[in-house]
Design goal:
The complex is a heterodimer of chains A (about 575) and B (about 240).
Chain A: H1 2-9, H2 24-29, E1 42-47, E2 50-52, E3 56-63, E4 82-84, E5 88-96, E6 99-112, E7 116-120, E8 123-127, E9 130-134, E10 137-142, E11 155-158, E12 162-163, E13 169-176, E14 186-192, E15 196-212, E16 215-228, E17 232-242, E18 252-253, E19 268-270, E20 274-278, E21 290-294, E22 297-299, E23 303-304, E24 308-310, E25 315-318, E26 321-323, E27 341-345, E28 352-357, E29 371-374, E30 379-382, E31 391-393, H3 437-442, H4 444-465, H5 467-492, H6 495-510, H7 523-528, H8 532-536, H9 538-555, H10 568-580
Parallel strand pairs in A: 2-10, 12-20, 15-18, 21-29, 24-31
Antiparallel strand pairs in A: 1-3, 3-6, 4-6, 5-6, 7-10, 8-9, 11-13, 13-16, 14-17, 15-16, 17-19, 17-20, 22-26, 23-25, 25-28, 27-28, 29-30
Helix pairs in contact in A: 5-6, 5-10, 6-9, 6-10
Chain B: H1 2-35, H2 39-52, H3 56-68, H4 72-85, H5 90-103, H6 112-117, H7 122-145, H8 152-178, E1 181-184, E2 189-192, E3 201-205, E4 210-217, E5 220-225, E6 228-233, E7 237-239
Antiparallel strand pairs in B: 1-4, 1-7, 2-3, 4-5, 5-6
Helix pairs in contact in B: 1-2, 2-3, 3-4, 4-5, 7-8
């Protein structure tokens, strides 16, 4: 696009746009000029110039200059007996011949306290480097009971005096008809007072009969919509210039009135101040979604453009509000933040939203929080738009590809496979065993087995090199077995078994010393393993008796006497001595 | 004592059996939901089945429903995980080829030992390494211990086991190395110069782009991709072998 523009306009510097003659610039030139060169004139007067004592009048100074072109003195020479209030001041432009002429007026509300003749002396004001003389003004204060007309002033009425910040209300500025029912309109109406927002687009003007101080009188009425912005007591006063019949904008006129002809006489009038109380909103209970709406509102059921959508597809959520508050000034609900929806609030005053689902996991639209403050009940009311069920489907990847040309043969399949009917191959975890610490421990199990095997082989080789150790161990094991048999023979009173096991035990106990098979040994072989003392003593005698009895039993020549069992202890002692040598 | 052991064994069997039953329930539920076109719920069911017990079938189906939802990255990750469990799963392999044909993203580039490790499931390699090692050791040691003559076939078997052990060692290294491979999950995932949200953008990664995890810092991971090396948010990278 840029290249096209460059090509169209060439590569030279940008040239300003050329407007055809006779359009906007000419329209601006055709406007009347503002006359700032003519000498500035000033006038000063009391309105009314004759007033009863204790009544109020106005000291008004008018200059045909802009307000910004001079500095009005903070103090003016005030005669004793008069109390001057804070001045009201305003400015307008008036048509004088072919030119506009600025007009600035200062109006002091003057309280009289005593009768007499009062003069405010003249003084001078520097207007854009030119000294302008303000003439003297005279006031006659007469007795209280004089039947004099009161000072002309505006009347200010408010639709409510107990409000909340943000709650709009109506202010009516009235200019009552004159003595002969003459009506003048007002220009440059201004309200004084901090923390007020005046909606001039919602103003209305009319000439009609209205009740003023209990009397039905014709009056010019300017109705303004005002919104207090801050909490606390507020004092409002109105001011405006009378403008004769210079009616700007639409106006409704009811009843019979007389509108004066001729050029307008611009007089700055003010009203008495009116106090209103603005209570603060309860901040502690301010609900979510409160955008400052004050009044009484209702919301129709939300309207969603579609309840089935794809991910990324925008849908429109329309909210329609009705109510008694100022709908034109309603700040629409703020788009909430959501991870699942992109929510775009349409530009105010529209109260609709563009919703874009970011995932297909959402089942409802997001709730749109909104609440308003009802000044009648002094409570917040929740008007949150509830979630609306929706169906969101994925943004759809293709599950099938078109068949490729023969020249572009590919090995990739042309469509997505079907679902697996069963779980198939399973695992405890996707984390491989290599990363599990316990698996290293499992690898130690074969190591332990091989170590045990090596130890067993080493022991076996040692025993092969030392066979006497095996024989002695076998002899000790057999000896323990024969001792148990002896015990049983004694317990059973079996003399023959006692003799047989005693002889076998003696043979086993000495067999490793030869080495020889125990069955091959005789009593002499046992005696040889005894010391000389033992051989000739009681142990030798026991060995000989046992083997002799065993020989007799073997030959079946005589049964063993029963008192053989009494030798049990001595046989055991002998066996213990022989076992100790193993 | 024996009774107590029996009860313990029975409780173990019941718990394992109930786990399998729950997995199968979630799998069956996922199948039903998929056939009904309720893909988000089906994805949740298959993900539940995978969480209880990873299986190739559940991962293949999870990939299919994620693809139907338009989540190409999650689908490719699920199919890669199915192939991780079962390298010869035909559905996973075919779907991966199809997805890469559609999305025009590359396969992860594997080094030779990583490529070798794809021939068998990861756990098979480690068991193979252990078995071949001890077979080789046994072939060397046991004939001497049992005073048997070493025969020709025994020596051949020992040599084969030793060779297999050495090869499986490299494959195991490949398995461990492949655990750092992941896939970009989100569309247009920003690859940043530093691990901050405000960091300069290096490139934008497409969904399903393979990446290799180099290190982690906070909520960001430092990855190497075909488009460069940089940081992405941790949630935007799905590893084959989640931590």
């Amino acid at each position: 696009m840029l290249s096209l523009l460059l090509a169209a306009g060439g590569l030279g510097a940008q040239t300003p746009p050329q407007f055809p003659p006779g359009t906007l610039s000419q329209l601006q030139v055709a406007q009347p000029a503002v006359d700032l060169t003519s000498p500035v004139t000033a006038s000063a007067e009391f309105d009314p110039p004759v007033v009863g004592a204790g009544k109020k009048t106005f000291y008004r100074v008018t200059l045909d200059a802009t307000e910004s072109s001079f500095a009005w003195p903070a103090k003016i020479p005030v005669p004793a007996g008069l109390q001057f209030g804070v001045p009201a001041h305003g400015q307008l432009t008036q048509m004088q011949g072919p030119k506009y002429r600025p007009l600035t007026a200062f109006a002091y509300e003057v309280q009289t306290t005593a009768t007499g003749h009062f003069t405010v002396p003249g003084f001078s004001v520097d207007v854009a480097g030119q000294t302008v003389a303000i003439p003297a003004a005279e006031l006659e204060v007469v007795a209280v009971n004089s039947n004099l007309p009161p000072a002309r002033r505006l009347v200010l009425e408010t639709s409510a005096t107990n409000l909340f910040p943000g709650q709009p209300f109506l202010i009516r500025v009235l200019l009552p008809a004159g003595p002969s029912n003459e009506i003048e309109v007002l220009r440059e109406i201004q309200l004084s007072g901090n923390g007020l927002m005046i909606d001039k687009t919602a103003s209305r003007q009319a000439i009609e009969a209205t009740s003023i101080n209990g009397q039905l009188r014709q009056a010019y009425i300017s109705e303004l919509r005002v919104t207090p912005l801050t909490a606390g007591p507020l004092t409002i006063a109105a001011q405006g210039f009378t403008a004769g019949r210079e009616i700007t904008g639409p106006i409704s006129i009811r009843g019979q009135v007389s509108i004066p002809g001729g050029p307008a006489r611009y007089v700055l009038l003010t009203s008495d101040p009116v106090s209103i109380q603005v209570r603060p909103l309860p901040v502690e209970s301010e609900p979510k979604g409160f955008t400052g709406a004050i009044g009484r509102f209702y919301c129709d059921p939300p309207n969603l453009s579609a309840d089935r959508m794809r991910v990324g597809e925008p849908v429109q959520l329309k909210l329609t509000f009705h109510g008694e508050g100022e709908l034109a000034k309603l700040v629409p609900p703020v788009a909430p933040r959501s991870r699942e929806w992109q929510i775009i609030a349409d530009p105010p005053p529209a109260t609709s939203f563009t919703l874009i689902p970011l995932t297909d996991e959402v089942r409802t639209t997001p709730a749109i929080p909104f609440s308003y403050f009802d000044p009648l009940t002094a409570k917040y009311v929740d008007l949150t738009t509830p979630p609306i069920p929706v169906t969101v489907v994925g943004d759809g990847l293709p599950v099938q590809l078109p068949a490729a040309d023969e020249g572009a043969a590919t090995t990739a399949p042309l469509k997505l496979s079907g679902l697996a009917p069963g779980p198939g191959k399973t695992a405890v975890s996707l984390k491989p065993l290599q990363l599990h610490g316990w698996f290293v421990a499992v690898q130690l199990v074969p190591v332990i087995g091989f170590l045990a095997l090596w130890r067993w082989d080493r022991r076996r080789r040692f025993l092969e090199a030392h066979p006497d150790l095996v024989r002695r161990r076998q002899a000790r094991r057999a000896l323990r077995r024969e001792k148990r048999h002896l015990q049983r023979a004694v317990a059973g009173g079996d003399t023959a078994a006692f003799q047989q096991h005693a002889a076998a035990a003696l043979r086993i106990a000495v067999a490793p010393h030869y080495p020889a098979n125990p069955q091959a040994l005789v009593g002499g072989d046992v005696l040889q393993q005894l010391t000389e003392t033992e051989r000739n003593g009681e142990p030798g005698e026991i060995v000989r008796h046992i083997f002799a009895a065993a020989d007799r039993q073997f030959a079946l020549t005589a049964p063993a006497p029963a008192d053989w069992l009494a030798l049990h202890d001595r046989v055991l002692a002998l066996l213990c001595r022989l076992e100790a040598k193993l | 004592m024996k009774l107590r052991h029996l009860l313990l064994f029975a409780a173990l069997c019941i718990s394992v059996g109930s786990g399998h039953a729950a997995t199968n329930d979630a799998f069956a539920q996922g199948l039903e939901l998929s056939l009904a076109g309720r893909f988000p719920e089906a994805a949740a069911a298959f993900a539940s089945a995978v969480k209880q017990q990873p299986s190739a079938g559940a991962l293949v189906n999870l990939g299919n429903v994620e693809w139907q939802r338009g989540h190409a990255g999650a689908a490719i990750l699920a199919w890669e995980q199915a192939q991780w469990l079962d390298p010869y799963d035909a559905r996973a392999g075919a779907n991966l080829k199809f997805a890469r044909q559609v999305t025009q993203v590359d396969e992860p580039s594997l080094r030779w030992f990583e490529a070798a490790s794809t021939w068998l499931p990861p756990n098979a390699w480690v068991w193979l390494a252990g078995a071949s090692l001890w077979l080789a050791v046994g072939g060397l040691v046991l004939p001497g211990v049992f005073r048997r003559q070493k025969t020709g076939w025994q020596q051949t078997l020992t040599a084969l086991a030793a060779g297999l052990f050495l090869f499986s060692l490299t494959a195991n290294v490949g398995v461990v190395s492949r655990t750092q491979i992941g896939f970009v999950l989100g569309k247009n995932t920003p690859l940043r110069l530093t691990p901050t949200r405000e960091s300069e953008l290096i490139s934008t990664l497409t969904s399903g782009e393979p990446a290799r995890l180099l290190r982690t810092r906070g909520n960001y991971v430092f990855i190497h991709t075909g488009l460069g090396t940089g940081w992405v948010e941790r949630a935007q990278l799905g590893l084959i072998c989640p931590e």
